[in-house]
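Batch job 17 of 40 flagged for manual review because the log was empty.
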Amino acid sequence: MRLARLVDTAARHGLPGHTCLKRSLVLWYLCRRRGVPVAVVLGARPTAAGLEAHAWVEHDGVVINDEGSVQRDYIPLSWTTIGRRA
């Protein structure tokens, strides 16, 4: 998705402290303003040091701002999903 690439480029070149969560929330906001039904998904996976968390945006169950492998590599925390309608 073009908007996802624009948000990622802006984050890399202008936003201090850009994180997956900040990028995902910006993309979610911009998509929702345009009427695109997207959801921010927060996931976690075990590591040797404990847990690692990650955030990404999905449209119709497809990851639009990251590799599709995040759905396999992270366990979604459904209670933290933002923007998904029941």
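Reviewer: the log was empty due to a logging misconfiguration, but the result itself is present. The helical segments are 2-14, 20-33, 70-73. Unflagging and moving on to job 18.
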